[in-house]
Amino acid sequence: MNFLRRHLTYANVVASLALFLALGGAAFAATQLPKNSVGTNQLKKGAVTAAKISRKTRQQLSGHVGPAGPQGPQGKTGAKGATGAKGATGAKGDTGAKGAPGADGIGPAYEVFGTNKALPGLLIVQTLPAGSYSISADVTVKNGTGAAAEVGCTVAGCAEMKTTVGPGESATLSASVLRGLSTALPVELTCTAPTGVTAPFSNIIATQVKSLTRAAG
Question: Phi/psi class of residue 156: alpha, beta or left (left: φ > 0; alpha: ψ in -120 to 50)?
C-alpha cells in the first residue's frame, strides 16, 4: 500500500482515467445509441436490402396495380403439331335413295322360283312384257334312283343345261341367255330326267335391259 501511495500521483490518475474512457466509451456508444441518432449519413450505400425489411413493410410499400396495357401485335404462326391418333370409326350412315337408271342402264327385274318339283316336266314359268332381257336360271337336282341319271334342262326355249348325277347325289345346273320379246310371252324352265330325280330348288331371274348389244358386251 505504501508503494502504491508513493507512486499514485495526479498525473497517473488522469492518464488511467483517460485510458478507461477511451476503451469503454466506444463499447458504450456501440450498444447504447440514443434515439434518432442514426441518419442517412450513417448508413453505408446498399446497407438496407429487401431481406432486412419486414414482409408487412414491403406490402405497405407496394403500389396499386395499374390498368392493363394495350394488346401487343400478333406473334408468328407456330410450327404445325404432330398428327393425332386416328379416331374411332363412326356409325354407318343411312343408305341413300336409289338413282334413276341412266340412258344405257337396266330396267325392272322379274324373279320366280319353285321347290320340291318332280322330274321330268315343267318346273317354273314367268311371263315377261315385251322388251329385251338378260335371263338366268338355276336348278338343283337330286338323284333318288339307284343308278346314274342324265339330266337336261332348258330355259326360255334355247339355253340348255346338262349333267350326269350319280345315285343318291345332287348337282346344280345354271344357264343364262339374252332374249328380245316383241310381245308379252311366258319364259319356262323345263327338265328331262329319269323318274325318281327331283328338283329341290329352281329359279328364273329376268332383268330388262336397254340394249341386247350392250348387255352382251
Answer: left
With cell 438496407, the residue in question is 48
Q: Which three cell numbers stand for residue 93?
A: 350412315
Q: CA–CA separation, 9 vs 49, rounded Å? A: 54
Q: Could you give the CA distance from residue 217 to residue 211 in angstroms, rounded to a whole number? A: 10
Helices (H) and strands (E) counted in the chain, each on its own, are 4, 8
Q: Which amino acid is at 68?
A: A
Phi, psi of 19 (to 5 degrees): -65, -40
Model pTM score: 0.49
Q: Which amino acid is at 136?
A: S
- pLDDT tens readout for residues 142-160: 999 989 999 999 998 888 8
Measured in degrees and rounded to the nearest 5, phi and psi for residue 41 equal -70, -25
Q: Give me the CATH code for the 107-216 domain, please.
A: 2.60.120.40
* Straight-line distance from the first to the last Cα atom of the chain, in angstroms, rounded to the nearest whole number: 154
